[in-house]
């Protein structure tokens, strides 16, 4: 690696360290993963059945957690607090850095566009206001917290995630104790449809980009980093399974709607409708904070901008993160999100391959011995499985674009 490819310590000494707690770290991972997408999982898994979804969540959750633990070890082997793009530049050069920066940007901006559009629709429906105004009302607390940085994001994620979990438990409990679930709706299995469900689950768990932020915030307690990753991912998997269990179990595959809040409203009444939509807003808000902050800090990292002490650079970074998604949503171009969603397959492939390569390079060229190592999770067999599954998910996305997937899979 040439000296030009390494972060110039005279220009960029890494992001400043901001202390967060273990539970705030867990909340950041959980909030990043539990976006509005959880509300479409019941519909996406209806063809294969709930057992197929459980299998998909186990496979995707384990492999994504392994990838996140690779990033955690790489961060612990590095003296300078860098983001994914900076870590890739340090260990893989500029090509790897630009690839992972492109993956983060595609995934992140696509999600923010969806949140700007979705939040506007929900608030417009709830309060009878213009959709653009609804998106703006959502954006204000979103951008303010991202501007304030990691510590504010951790505290906000912890508070809002608690409310989000309460609403999920209320909705699921209301379903189980009210209309109840039919066992037949939960035990059918159509193995042929497992592949598209695995693809769906793979991208429901993409949160590797949050790990360097956690490493920066938990630098005072390095061993808490892998524990926060595992706890956040286990909580994610549990709730990604719980919502489809209640929805599919109550309504069955034929009555489920693409956005499950609609089906819940039909069955449980207007109160459930409000609860479900408030939950959706909170889910989008927590994801907005985690993804927006990660995009912002990767911009600082990739372009060696000062993360503190320069209002101009912070304004420029926040503008790059917030303005394009809002304008695309406000101008009614949110259909563009579908194209970005397909490109998210590329992001997923990059997010699986780059951490494997970084881990191997960091173990031979890292700055220091880490307080924790990935151990058996970094076995070559796991690494090969990780790259293979995420690579096939990317291939599935490409085949979907050109219309070559079997009927019923798309």
Automatic annotation (TrEMBL):
<dbReference type="GO" id="GO:0003333">
    <property type="term" value="P:amino acid transmembrane transport"/>
</dbReference>
<keyword id="KW-0997">Cell inner membrane</keyword>
<feature type="transmembrane region" description="Helical">
    <location>
        <begin position="228"/>
        <end position="251"/>
    </location>
</feature>
<feature type="transmembrane region" description="Helical">
    <location>
        <begin position="315"/>
        <end position="334"/>
    </location>
</feature>
<keyword id="KW-1133">Transmembrane helix</keyword>
<keyword id="KW-0813">Transport</keyword>
<protein>
    <submittedName>
        <fullName>Amino acid permease</fullName>
    </submittedName>
</protein>
<dbReference type="Pfam" id="PF03222">
    <property type="entry name" value="Trp_Tyr_perm"/>
</dbReference>
<feature type="transmembrane region" description="Helical">
    <location>
        <begin position="189"/>
        <end position="207"/>
    </location>
</feature>
<dbReference type="InterPro" id="IPR018227">
    <property type="entry name" value="Amino_acid_transport_2"/>
</dbReference>
<keyword id="KW-0472">Membrane</keyword>
<feature type="transmembrane region" description="Helical">
    <location>
        <begin position="53"/>
        <end position="76"/>
    </location>
</feature>
<keyword id="KW-0812">Transmembrane</keyword>
<dbReference type="GO" id="GO:0005886">
    <property type="term" value="C:plasma membrane"/>
</dbReference>
<feature type="transmembrane region" description="Helical">
    <location>
        <begin position="380"/>
        <end position="405"/>
    </location>
</feature>
<feature type="transmembrane region" description="Helical">
    <location>
        <begin position="128"/>
        <end position="150"/>
    </location>
</feature>
<feature type="transmembrane region" description="Helical">
    <location>
        <begin position="271"/>
        <end position="295"/>
    </location>
</feature>
<feature type="transmembrane region" description="Helical">
    <location>
        <begin position="159"/>
        <end position="177"/>
    </location>
</feature>
<feature type="transmembrane region" description="Helical">
    <location>
        <begin position="97"/>
        <end position="116"/>
    </location>
</feature>
<feature type="transmembrane region" description="Helical">
    <location>
        <begin position="20"/>
        <end position="41"/>
    </location>
</feature>
<feature type="transmembrane region" description="Helical">
    <location>
        <begin position="340"/>
        <end position="359"/>
    </location>
</feature>
<keyword id="KW-1003">Cell membrane</keyword>
């Amino acid at each position: 690696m040439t000296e030009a490819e390494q972060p110039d310590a005279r220009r960029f000494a890494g992001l400043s360290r901001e202390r967060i707690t273990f539970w705030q770290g867990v909340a950041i991972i959980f909030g990043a993963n539990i976006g509005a997408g959880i509300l479409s999982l019941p519909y996406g898994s209806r063809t294969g059945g709930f057992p197929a979804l459980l299998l998909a969540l186990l496979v995707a959750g384990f492999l994504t957690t392994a990838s996140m633990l690779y990033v955690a070890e790489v961060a612990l082997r590095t003296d300078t607090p860098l983001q994914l793009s900076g870590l890739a530049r340090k260990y893989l050069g500029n090509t790897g850095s630009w690839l992972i920066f492109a993956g983060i940007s595609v995934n992140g901006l696509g999600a923010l566009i969806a949140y700007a559009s979705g939040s506007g629709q929900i608030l417009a429906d709830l309060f009878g206001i213009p959709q653009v105004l609804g998106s703006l009302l959502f954006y204000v607390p979103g951008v303010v917290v991202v501007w304030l940085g990691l510590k504010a994001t951790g505290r906000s994620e912890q508070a809002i995630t608690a409310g989000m979990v309460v609403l999920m438990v209320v909705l699921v409990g209301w379903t189980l104790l009210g209309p109840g679930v039919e066992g037949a709706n939960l035990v059918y299995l159509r193995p042929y449809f497992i592949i598209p469900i695995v693809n769906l689950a793979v991208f429901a768990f993409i949160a590797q980009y949050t790990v360097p932020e956690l490493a920066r915030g938990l630098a005072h307690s390095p061993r808490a980093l892998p524990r926060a990753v595992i706890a956040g991912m286990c909580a994610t998997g549990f709730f990604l399974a719980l919502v489809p269990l209640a929805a599919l179990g109550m309504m069955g595959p034929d009555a489920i709607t693409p956005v499950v809040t609609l089906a819940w409203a039909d069955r449980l009444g207007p109160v459930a409708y409000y609860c479900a939509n408030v939950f959706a807003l909170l889910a989008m808000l927590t994801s907005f904070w985690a993804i927006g902050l990660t995009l912002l800090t990767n911009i600082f990292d990739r372009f060696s901008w000062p993360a503190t002490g320069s209002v101009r650079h912070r304004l420029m970074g926040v503008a790059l993160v917030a303005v394009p998604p809002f304008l695309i949503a406000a101008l009614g171009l949110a259909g563009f999100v579908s194209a970005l969603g397909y490109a998210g397959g590329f992001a997923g492939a990059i997010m699986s391959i780059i951490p494997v390569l970084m881990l191997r390079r960091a173990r031979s060229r890292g700055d220091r011995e880490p307080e924790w190592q990935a151990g058996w999770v970094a076995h070559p067999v796991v690494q090969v499985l990780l790259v293979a599954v995420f690579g096939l998910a990317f291939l599935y996305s490409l085949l979907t674009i050109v219309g070559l997937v079997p009927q019923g899979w798309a």
